[in-house]
Write a structure and sequence with these properties.
- By secondary structure, this protein is an alpha/beta fold.
- The protein has two domains: 131 residues, Alpha-Beta Complex (Aspartate Aminotransferase, domain 1); 236 residues, Type I PLP-dependent aspartate aminotransferase-like (Major domain) (Aspartate Aminotransferase, domain 2), CATH 3.40.640.
- The chain contains twelve helices and twelve strands.
- A seven-stranded mixed sheet has the order 2-8-7-6-5-3-4, with helices on both faces. Strands 9-10-12 form a three-stranded antiparallel sheet.
- Helix 4 runs parallel beside helix 5, helix 6 runs parallel beside helix 7 and helix 9 crosses helix 12.
- The longest helix is centred in the C-terminal third of the chain and has 36 residues.
- It starts with a strand and ends in a 5-residue tail after the last helix.
Length: 383
């Protein structure tokens, strides 16, 4: 039985072209970038070339790209680093009610340190009203952190308007762009971003590489101290093979982005149209302002984990909720924030498409899903 992977929002396979670009940096060009000899300088050149590629994608300067080990690290760095460095200016931070768990948990930690956190609510589509952000700002606000595109429901926020509000108020603005980076063109200058998080393994690069864009002049405290790598903002011997792979993945994405987005949008729209023919099914997230590869559904009288397991038995991999929290039994905080009841949130299915998704794959899902939904509903205690 052919296995069909439809969980690209959780992680992506490494593109073979990326693997090929990485190979020399494991055993041939293995030098430490801090070393002065030729091995070290060869590695340093590869590092800086990679930094330039990533900076170019978002219209940043290379020195504004700080490499990290993951998006989770970048998000922790953004919130905690800004809070600790600017506590003399204020102690108030604004996030949204649909942030990734690493933002939510960082905010909880900062609350224990005496910072005040305000969560901005969303509408039924998961959209944030920029005016709500403006109203929440006080003279103690030092940072606003709003996710660019939801990892769960795919809704894309108007971060340009939010960024403009923050810039006018003199407040730092961070966006978690882990899902949108490489899929949507981002110009950090145009949309007033001070800090931005991105991840390699969401765009067919390797795991173990992420970045935090930090606009020049932003006051931020390092979380890791040591050898002074990454302009002294992230000490640690850098993961050169992964960073080279990250940059190669970006180069590929830049060339193929427009064509791929059109292809995925057509497949996604077909999927949504057919799945919504199932009785008592609902689309979560904005019907139009959403990532090209994301479709999130709720099914009444269904338990999401059962649905995922039944699909897996048919050789189809999807998810319920985000990958980082799918082992938890609580309903998704993102879906609850959009107004869904707990039992509706429990009946969710996230289908995320990618580079190797074919129309045959989508047709297979469309074929088996109604049968599985009926089977689960027939024995459901929720009816």
């Amino acid at each position: 039985m052919k296995k069909i992977y439809l969980d690209y929002a959780a992680t992506t396979p490494v593109d073979k072209r990326v693997t090929k670009a990485m190979e020399p940096y494991f055993s041939e060009k293995f030098g430490n970038t801090m070393s002065l000899h030729s091995f070290g300088q060869e590695a340093k050149l590869a590092l800086e070339n990679s930094r330039a590629v990533l900076a170019n994608l978002i219209n940043a300067e290379p020195n504004e790209i700080i490499f990290t080990g993951s998006a989770t690290e970048s998000n922790n760095f953004a919130l905690k680093g800004i809070a600790l460095a600017n506590k003399n200016r204020g102690n108030h931070i604004i996030i949204s009610s649909i942030e990734h768990p690493c933002i939510v948990e960082s905010a909880k930690w900062l609350e224990k340190q005496g910072f005040q956190i305000t969560k901005i609510s969303v509408d039924k589509y998961g959209m944030i009203n920029p005016e709500d952000v403006k109203k929440a700002i006080t003279d103690k606000t030092i940072l606003v952190s709003i996710i660019h595109a939801s990892n769960e429901i795919g809704t894309i926020q108007d971060i340009e308007k939010i960024g403009k509000i923050c810039r006018e108020k003199g407040i730092y603005f961070h966006t978690d762009a882990s899902q949108s980076f490489g899929k949507i063109l981002i110009d950090v200058e145009k949309i007033n971003i001070d800090l931005l998080t991105a991840s390699s393994h969401k765009i067919y690069g390797p795991k173990g590489a992420g970045l935090l864009y930090v606009r020049e002049g932003v006051k931020i405290e390092p979380l890791l101290h040591g050898g002074g790598q990454e302009n002294g903002l992230r000490s640690s011997t850098i993961n050169l093979p992964a960073i080279v792979g990250f940059a190669k993945a970006v180069e590929i994405y830049k060339k193929e982005m427009n064509k791929e987005n059109k292809r995925l949008t057509a497949l996604r729209n077909k999927l949504i149209k057919e799945v919504l023919k199932i009785k008592n099914s609902h689309l979560n997230g904005h019907p139009e302002k959403r990532l090209a590869n994301n479709a999130n559904f709720s099914f009444d009288f269904i338990e999401g984990e059962s649905l995922v397991m039944q699909l897996d038995m048919e050789g189809i991999a999807c998810s319920t909720g985000s990958a980082c929290s799918s082992i938890k039994l609580e309903p998704s905080h993102v879906l609850l924030a959009t107004g869904l009841r707990a039992e509706q949130a429990h009946g969710s299915l996230r289908v995320s498409l990618g580079r190797y998704t074919t129309e045959k794959d989508i047709n297979k899902l469309i074929e088996v899903l109604p049968k599985i939904v009926k089977k689960i509903r027939d024995i459901s205690p929720f009816k």
